[in-house]
Amino acid sequence: MTLTVSRKAHFNAAHRLYSPDWSDEKNREVFGKCSNPNFHGHNYELIASVTGPIDPETGFVIDVKVLKDLIKTQVEDAFDHKNLNLDVDDFSSLNPTAEHIAVAIYNRLKPHLKAGLHLEITLYETPRNFVSYKGISL
Ligand code: NI
């Protein structure tokens, strides 16, 4: 039996989307309000979903407490109330788009999961805009 266990989490963070190679005008054209030079915030909602077999001893795919603590130490402590461009190394040379943030979260959590467990990250940047990543390159 293979099941998926999910945990929701939340963080607030500021970002600015821009390419240093482009003019302010082109940045505004491509990234809109998200290229505001003085940064702006989002209330990010995160869903981390772990898929795998039920452990016959515990009856868990993963102990949700373990997943909760991992999200806290690896994601919330690193991203919450931070400026993603300036404060978080993951984005020192990477635009903090929802896509890149989802990949960064995946990369932070996946190494801590037992082998054989699959991870999918769903990240809401706004209530209507969200991305998901499960570590597969197409
Ligand atoms: Ni934005």
Brief descriptors of the model:
4 helices, alpha+beta, 5-stranded mixed β-sheet, Tetrahydropterin Synthase, Chain A, binds nickel (II) ion, 138 residues, 29% helix
Report what the structure shows.
By secondary structure, the protein is of the alpha+beta class. It has a single domain (2-133), classed as 6-pyruvoyl tetrahydropterin synthase/QueD (Tetrahydropterin Synthase, Chain A), CATH 3.30.479. It has four helices and five strands. The chain has helices spanning 24-31, 64-79, 84-87, 98-109; strands at 2-15, 40-53, 82-83, 118-124, 130-133. Strands 3-1-2-4-5 form a five-stranded mixed beta sheet. The longest helix has 16 residues, at 64-79. The structure holds nickel (II) ion.
CATH C-level category: Alpha Beta
Bound molecules: nickel (II) ion
Please tally the helical runs, counting DSSP H or I stretches of 4 or more residues: 4
Poorly predicted runs are none
State the domain count.
1
Instruction: Describe the global form.
Output: elongated
Strand order of the largest sheet: 3-1-2-4-5
